[in-house]
Amino acid sequence: MKLRLGMIGGGQGAFIGAVHRHAAALDGLYELVAGAFSSNPETSKASGQLLGLAADRVYGSYEELIAREKALPETERVQVLSIVTPNHLHFAPAKLALENGFHVILDKPMTFSLAEAKELQAVAAASNGHFCLTHTYTGYPMVKEARQLVASGELGTIRKAYVEYPQGWLSNFEEGSSDNKQAAWRTDPARSGVAGAMGDIGTHAFNLLEYVTGLSVTQLCADINTVVPGRKLDDDGAVLLRLAGGASGVLVATQVAAGEENNVRLRVYGDKGGLEWQQVDANTLQVKWLDRPTEIRRAGTGYVSSYARHNTRTPAGHPEGYLEAFANLYRNFALSLQAELGGKSASAEALDYPSIEEGVRGMAFIENVIASGRSDQKWTEFTV
Q: How far apart are the C-alpha atoms of 212 and 190, rounded to whole Å?
């Protein structure tokens, strides 16, 4: 049975809302039945009409959506709420949804501040709701394979990790254009928070590194820059990392690398071998050995782990990309909820999606990185 889905944000003109809807629809596990798609009631109504929703299930605010959906019979009301608003509008609807018994899928970063993230974590713990955070890159099959390879110990003791996320779309003062809504809110401290690039894409890089290595960052040393004149938040930065167990790492996130798109790249090295994955060739994982030739592992093949197979839909050689990785988060969340509703235990593969703990660490990363960048101290403790 499909899960009934509602959406907050993501109306006409919004980029990420359509991505979430495609991801939710890909496996046929959700049915979009309601929404509050904009803070403007007329825009919300028009967006709902375009999506073919019943007029009485399209609301003018998230408060109205939650109140009226909760009043419906349990067999009709929304079960999962997908929240795809700008950062400053994450906490309040997510908190209200969890308090009223709805499950939540939330775009990253989780909240506007670490204090909000901790409060939301407490609310989630006290509720019966489940929570998924859309750190897309953990949904790729060969990222799953990389994590399992590290966890198996085949690479030995992890010593070094590099993760980079270069973009070029903010190489100019794009927020000066009234047509670029994405640039406007992502570079606005009142809507984005204390970080620009480090909050927008640095959190993805940080989450990817911790996810694959299985190691937590314990200390960092950050160089944070604002390159484009007039910009209010960082658009470039690099961070030295110290990880639990003695490994070290380097994280680079920039939005002023002219000509780059979303070239996410991860390298992890142990004392026996290393691995490399990048989004431009997402179906490939390179495994490099100290004493034998490099392996090329491919998605869709019979030799990959159960986690990689579980998150692959097509035979080897058929590329799966960003939308499929995004959909894997929705799919795994749905499978875990459906198992619970059916009185069963979800598989470990289905339970492998980012949750509230990753959200709290992501917000801690943002605040620690910005504090380090402003500090004269070389190394600072990573505090949560």
A: 32
Report the distance separating Cα 375 and Cα 379, nearest Å. 9
Give the pTM. Answer: 0.97
Rounded Cα distance, 96 and 71, in Å: 14
Q: Is the peptide bond before 109 cis (omega within 30 degrees of 0)?
A: yes
Q: Counting runs of H as helices and runs of E as strands, what totals does the chain give?
A: 13, 14
Give dist(CA 351, CA 366) in Å, integer: 26
Strand-pair category, 103-106 with 80-83:
parallel
> Residue with structure tokens 């939301």?
120
Q: What is the model's pLDDT at position 73?
A: 98
Query: Which whole number is the average pLDDT over 162-187?
Result: 93
Residue range 12-49, pLDDT digits in tens: 888 899 999 999 999 999 999 999 999 999 999 999 99
Per-residue pLDDT at 178 exceeds 90: no
Q: Measure the CA–CA gap between 339 and 341, rounded to whole angstroms.
A: 5
CA dihedral sign of residues 279, 260, 114, 331: negative
Paired residues of 158 in beta bridges: 270
User: Residue 179's pLDDT is what?
Assistant: 79
Higher pLDDT, 173 or 178: 173
CA pair distance 148, 304, nearest whole angstrom? 9
Of the candidates 130, 108, 132, the one whose C-alpha atom is nearest the C-alpha of residue 362 is 108
Give the DSSP letter of residue 58: B
Continuous H helices in 81-234:
91-99, 114-126, 141-151, 181-186, 189-192, 197, 203-213
Nearest to 373 by CA among 197, 118, 208: 197
